[in-house]
Amino acid sequence: MTQLDKFTGVIPAFYAAYDDEGQVDTERIKKEVQYFIDKGVKGIYVNGSSGECIYLTVPERKAIIEAVMSVAKGKITVINHVAANSTMESQALAKHAEEQGVDAIAAIPPIYFKLPPYSVANYWNSISKAAPNTPFVIYNIPQLAGTALTIPLYEEMLKNPNVIGVKNSSMPIQDIQMFATAGGDDHIVFNGSDEQFIGGRVIGAKAGIGGTYGVMTKLFLKLNDLVEAQDMVSALALQNAIDAVIYKMVSGRANMYAIIKEILRINEGLDLGSVREPLEPLGQDRPIAEEAAKMIKEAEAKFL
Fold first, then answer.
1. SS3 letters for 60-92?
2. For residues 18 and 23, what is the distance between their CA atoms, to the nearest angstrom?
3. Coil/strand/helix, residue 128
4. Which of 41, 110, 195, 204 lies at a C-alpha separation of 20 to 30 Å from 140?
5. 222 near 304, Cβ under 8 Å?
6. 19 in helix, strand or coil?
7. What does the alpha-carbon distance between residue 279 and residue 43 come to, in Å, rounded to a whole number?
8. Catalytic residues
C-alpha cells in the first residue's frame, strides 16, 4: 500500500449545505458526510467549486471543514480546498485544515489578475508552507480560474515534496496524460471532468473528483469498477447514460447545483437547502430536476 492509495477511486465533490435562511448549516453538513460514507465512496473533496467556495467567507469555510471532520475523520479520505482571494486567507484556511487532520489540501491558482507562472508558484508554495505536514493537490480548472497549469509550472511545483498531484478539470483530455507523465508513479492525477470520466481514467488518471458524483454515486462507483475491469463496452454505455443526466441538469435557468440539491431531496431524502446568490436558485426548474431524478433511477435499474 502506498501513500496515494487513499486518494484513488471515486471522490465526490462535497456540496454546500444551508439552512432555510441561506446560512451554512453544520447539521446538514454532517448528514451529507454520513450520506457519502453510507454510499461507500473513497473520500470527499470539500470547499471546492461544488461547495460554492467562492461565495463563502473564511469563517464559514472553517466551520464547514470542522463539521465534516467531526464525522469523516478516520472513516473516509478528506481533501479540503483552501484557495481564497488572498494568500493570507488561503494560508489561514490551510493551517486550519491541517489542524483538523484533513488528508490533503488543494488550491486553484489566484483568480482575476493574470499573474506570471512564478507568482502562481509562489502562491501555491506559500499555501503549502502554512500546512507543512499535509499533502497538496493542485486544482487545474482554467476555464473558470483563468490560469492554466502548464507542464513547466507543474515541474516547478513538483520540487515541493508536499505536492502529490493534480485535480485536472481542463477540457483537453490530453492534459491528464501530460500531467501523469510529468508526475510519474509517485504522483496522482484526478479526472475532474465528469463527462470524460472513462477517457480520463484510461489516459492516466488514477481517480476522479467530480461535482455530479454525489447525485449519482452508485453509477460512478459502477463506472469506475467497469474501467478497472477493462469492460469498456459497458463503461461507454454507462458513461453515455451519466452524460445524458448531466446534460439534462444544465438545460434550465437554474444553476446545476440547485438542480442537484433538488434531485437529492427527491431521490435520497437529503435536504441541503438552496444555492448561494448570485448562483441561480431552482425557481421554475423543478420539472428538470424531476426528470433528471427519474433518469438516474432508470440508469441504476439498468446498470447496477
1. HHHHHHHHHHHHHCCCCEEEEECCCCCHHHHHH
2. 5
3. helix
4. 41
5. yes
6. coil
7. 26
8. 139, 167
For residue 38, which amino acid is it? D
Among 142, 146, 152, residue whose Cα is nearest residue 117: 152
**In tens digits, what is the pLDDT along the chain, a chain of 304 residues?**
578 999 999 999 999 999 999 999 999 999 999 999 999 999 999 999 999 999 999 999 999 999 999 999 999 999 999 999 899 999 999 999 999 999 999 999 999 999 999 999 999 999 999 999 999 999 999 988 889 999 999 999 999 999 999 999 998 899 999 999 999 999 999 999 999 999 999 999 999 999 999 999 999 999 999 999 999 999 999 999 999 999 999 999 999 999 999 999 999 999 999 999 999 999 999 999 999 999 999 999 999 9
Alpha helices in the chain (DSSP H): 26-39, 58-72, 87-100, 117-130, 142-145, 151-157, 174-183, 197-203, 217-228, 232-249, 256-268, 286-303
CA-nearest of 179, 187, 123, 189 to 161 is 187
* Distance between start and end Cα atoms, the chain: 29
d(CA 304, CA 299): 8
- In this prediction the pTM is 0.97
Instruction: Look up residue 131 and give its three cell numbers.
Output: 500546512
Long-range interactions of 268-274: CB distance < 8 A, separation 24+: 268/35, 270/31, 270/32, 270/35, 271/28, 272/15, 272/16, 272/17, 272/18, 272/28, 272/32, 273/17, 273/18, 273/19, 273/20, 273/22, 273/25, 273/28, 274/18, 274/22
